[in-house]
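Ops channel
N.P.: pipeline sanity check, posting one input/output pair.
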């Protein structure tokens, strides 16, 4: 009977998707699967029982991916499940930046006891006058699940949309409006756009992607929106640019001492995926991924191992092998099984960088001796009998 544990509160609508054979446990060391949102797992010791971790969200910087890979622990995330929630916050951020809405609301609160507030409003509202989004140029850096939604919605708001993503997927390209200008040079975004929003993962290559050099190439009065990760932007450079008048507003979903409360910084308390719908969608997707892996060995949306799907485990036996992506691994696997009199009915082998995953359906049962023989092959990280 598979056991799972929740490291954070996971929406009940997701947990209800587990088959009755699955059992929730409060003893993490017993669990074969973990469901997590923001809990930090870098200092956590993983038991030998643990097979997979499903993150109900997109970012996985709270999970030690390399250590998990070395132990053959699959890490899942839920790309796209919270995309609409983040998209809507991006537009809220652009509207707040363009219309002085926050300042206007603050003025009303400060003058709530003024008996003449209605008349005074007509006198004071000019100081909160702003600009419209219609007709403005929006630059989107990263055309994944969120970037595509932002781009398409901006088209319907009559914005002139530029998109940059050298690695845009086929799926994203299919869903992208033909009215979007796809640029191949990031500097075109900086030079042309009135609003710039960034939607890329945080990696060494994207850290401080928007920095002082990039800001120098931007239009005067540009608005920068960052609902992805704070470290994508050199916020010290942004503050200097705001103080000089180069940047009109900086909108971020990540409060920190650098930007919180600074003039012309609009900072929300990490609300991107904080909608009931997003939390439900992430929970459902994470549970489906974890359950399919524990039951069938299938991998979908893993961040440390390749995707591999052979459908339901319907043969006599199914095994999964995590290993280095080096030559002659398949030959050694088939040789070891052949020597043990085990016939392979069907097999899938997928790789991702230096790692690979082989899933095999077998026509006969395999015992611990066969599994030990496979585990002893140099380069094998983990062997798992699924059925």
């Amino acid at each position: 009977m598979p056991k799972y544990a929740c490291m954070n509160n996971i929406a009940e609508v997701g947990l209800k998707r587990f088959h009755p054979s699955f059992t929730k446990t409060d003893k993490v060391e017993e669990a074969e699967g973990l469901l997590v949102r923001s809990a930090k797992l870098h200092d956590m010791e993983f038991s030998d029982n643990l097979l997979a971790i499903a993150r109900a969200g997109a970012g996985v910087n709270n999970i030690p991916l390399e250590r998990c890979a070395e132990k053959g622990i699959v890490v899942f995330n839920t790309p796209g499940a919270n995309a609409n929630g983040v998209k809507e916050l991006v537009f809220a951020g652009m509207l707040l930046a363009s219309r002085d809405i926050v300042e206007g609301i603050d003025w009303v609160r400060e003058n709530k006891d003024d008996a003449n507030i209605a008349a005074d409003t007509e006198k004071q509202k000019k100081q909160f006058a702003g600009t419209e989004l219609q007709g403005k140029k929006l630059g989107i850096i990263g055309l994944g699940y969120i970037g595509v939604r932002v781009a398409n919605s901006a088209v319907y708001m009559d914005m002139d949309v530029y998109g940059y993503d050298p690695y845009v997927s086929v799926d994203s390209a299919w869903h992208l409006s033909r009215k979007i200008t796809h640029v191949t040079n990031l500097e075109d975004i900086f030079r042309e756009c009135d609003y710039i929003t960034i939607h890329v993962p945080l990696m060494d290559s994207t850290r401080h992607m928007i920095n002082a050099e990039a800001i120098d190439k931007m239009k005067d009065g540009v608005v920068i929106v960052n609902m992805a990760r704070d470290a994508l932007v050199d916020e010290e450079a942004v503050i200097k640019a705001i103080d000089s008048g180069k940047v009109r507003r900086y909108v971020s979903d990540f409060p920190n001492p650098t930007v919180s409360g600074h003039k012309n910084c609009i900072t929300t308390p990490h609300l991107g995926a904080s909608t009931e719908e997003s939390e439900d969608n992430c929970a459902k997707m994470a549970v489906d991924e974890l359950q399919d892996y524990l039951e069938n060995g299938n991998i979908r949306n893993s961040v440390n191992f390749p995707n591999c799907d052979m459908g339901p485990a319907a043969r006599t036996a199914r095994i999964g092998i995590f290993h280095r992506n080096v030559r002659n691994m398949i030959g050694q696997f088939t040789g070891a099984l052949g020597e043990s009199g085990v016939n392979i009915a069907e097999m899938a082998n997928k790789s991702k960088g230096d790692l690979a995953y082989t899933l095999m359906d077998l026509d006969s049962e395999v015992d611990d001796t066969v599994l030990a023989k496979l585990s002893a092959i140099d380069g094998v990280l983990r062997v798992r009998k699924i059925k």
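N.P.: looks fine end to end. DSSP finds 13 helices and 16 strands in the chain.
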